[in-house]
Write a structure and sequence with these properties.
Blueprint: H1 2-5, H2 14-28, H3 31-39, H4 46-68, E1 74-76, H5 80-94, H6 101-119, H7 123-130, H8 133-154, E2 158-161, E3 165-168, H9 174-191, H10 197-214, H11 250-255, H12 257-285, H13 298-315, E4 320-322, H14 326-331, H15 337-350, H16 354-358, H17 362-377, H18 389-404, H19 408-425, H20 434-451
Antiparallel strand pairs: 1-4, 2-3
Helix pairs in contact: 2-15, 3-4, 4-13, 4-15, 5-6, 5-12, 6-12, 6-13, 8-17, 8-18, 8-19, 9-10, 9-17, 10-17, 12-20, 18-19, 19-20
Length: 457
């Protein structure tokens, strides 16, 4: 371990690396409870998603450990899983398409393959650099708002209303109250720098829910979607359920190529900034950047992410990406792949505790989603609103169109199209890089299909 991970060279030791790996795991293990809850809306089985999430996280993190030697852990990304379920699968299901998750998984597979090809060159970094900063920050903030509205709806805090479109839910319902309490608990724990504060917030909210059920406040009613909050422990329940392996639908792709390209491009685009931004942020916090501010072994790190995405698609989960929660492990002293190795082993161990994670209700994971949304929304502070009108409007539209049209893809589409149009109209067409022309052209075709009612939605 010493020689392979070069611990002395990175001024660390085995004990520090293992501790850091445990810290990273505790900071991001909430994904094992959240991801099955979100992806179940796509038609995927929650237990199968749990297995796929844990296995793909362990696999991708092991690649990062041994191939890139970085203290970065990977798992199904927040925001990307919401896009998978609510922007792709739900509209398709409403349009009468059977098993829409198969189409979404196909898009994730293709995205991963494209990422592998891009990661073998420097084109991936160039793509990130060529997209306007305001649009990048706007997309991140927009995804944050989107995740928040998904969480508020899931907990019954926000409900639909024929007069005002949305309204506040029933404040007397335990789901409403406990979700708000859970969010405040996470905020308090974060303030006091409690490791794994998001996970602890989920678990405490769940325990409060069990208390509410025991005293009769929370009523079990399966027909209304209110199931018992107490986990069922049997010998069979600890045996991991097989994931939805290779559940792809290439036949639909051949008949709906434009729609499929838009879906795939949206996955690609969101994952693009998520991965590069996370890697740079984690490396910066751990002083792992070189003297020029570049990331050594960037190609290996990006390939680890891309291969993890392909593996996740084959196993039946949404895009696997680098987790910003890895900074928790780095802050604890993690500097090498041994930190990632520790985290990966813990994900493999967690596979055999599915009864616990799968019993956690939606209102207990909603606080985690709201808090993650808060962290993403904070990127607004980096935006500039008083300079180029194209940058201002593009970032603004990306932010508002995601939550208000309930689609991450729509936010990206309006943001990119408006930026290119305003650049042309204001006489700055020469400032438009090739990637933005290509992106705008793709979304313009998609916009036309929407106007003429072509495709599923």
């Amino acid at each position: 371990m010493e020689k392979f991970f070069k611990l002395k060279e990175h001024q660390t030791d085995k004990r520090t690396e293992i501790t850091a790996g445990i810290t990273t795991f505790l900071s991001m293990v909430y994904i094992l409870a959240v991801n099955p809850n979100i992806l179940s809306a796509s038609g995927l089985d929650s237990a199968a998603v749990f297995t796929a999430t844990a296995v793909s996280a362990a696999f991708a993190t092991l690649i990062m450990a041994f191939y890139a030697n970085y203290p970065v852990a990977l798992a199904s990304g927040m925001g990307l899983n919401a896009y998978f379920a609510y922007s792709v699968c739900v509209p398709m299901a409403q349009a009468g398409i059977k098993d829409p998750y198969q189409i979404a998984l196909t898009a994730v597979l293709v995205e991963g393959i494209v990422f592998v090809l891009l990661s073998l060159t420097n084109f991936r970094e160039k793509l990130v650099n060529d997209v306007p900063a305001n649009l990048k920050y706007g997309i991140t903030a927009g995804i944050g708002f989107f995740i928040v509205i998904v969480a508020l709806k899931g907990a019954g805090i926000v409900v639909s209303d024929p007069s005002t479109v949305v309204a506040m839910g029933d404040v007397a319902k335990p789901e409403f109250v406990l979700a708000i309490v859970g969010f405040l608990i996470i905020a308090i724990l974060d303030h006091y720098n409690v490791k794994g504060h998001i996970l602890w917030g989920i678990l405490i909210t769940w325990c409060l829910g069990m208390v509410a059920q025991a005293i009769g406040w929370y009523q079990v009613d399966p027909k209304a979607g209110a199931y018992s909050l107490f986990p069922t422990f049997t010998a069979a329940s600890f045996i991991p359920k097989a994931p939805s392996f290779m559940a792809f639908n290439f036949k639909w792709v051949g008949k709906n190529l434009v729609e499929f390209l838009v879906i795939t491009f949206s996955f690609l685009f969101v994952d693009l900034f998520d991965t590069v931004g996370t890697l740079i942020g984690v490396a910066s916090k751990g002083n792992l950047l070189d003297e020029d501010g570049n990331l050594p072994r960037a190609k290996q790190a990006l390939l680890s992410d891309a291969i993890g995405t392909i593996a996740g698609a084959c196993l039946g989960t949404s895009t696997v990406t680098s987790f910003v929660e890895s900074t928790a492990g780095v802050a604890s002293g993690g500097r090498t792949g041994m930190t990632s190795l520790t985290t990966a082993i813990l994900f493999l161990v967690a596979i055999f505790f599915s009864p616990i994670f799968l019993a956690i209700p939606g209102f207990a994971t909603s606080p985690a989603l709201i808090y993650v949304g808060l962290l993403m929304i904070s990127s607004i502070k980096n935006m500039e609103f008083d300079k180029d009108i194209a940058d201002t409007v593009a970032g603004f539209l990306a932010i508002i169109m995601m939550p208000f049209t309930y689609s991450i893809a729509n936010g990206i589409m309006y943001g990119m199209l408006s930026w290119v149009i305003l650049k042309v109209v204001t006489g700055k067409a020469k400032q438009i890089p090739p990637v933005m022309w290509i992106s705008a052209a793709l979304f313009a075709v998609r916009f036309i299909t929407l106007i003429y009612g072509i495709g599923y939605r």
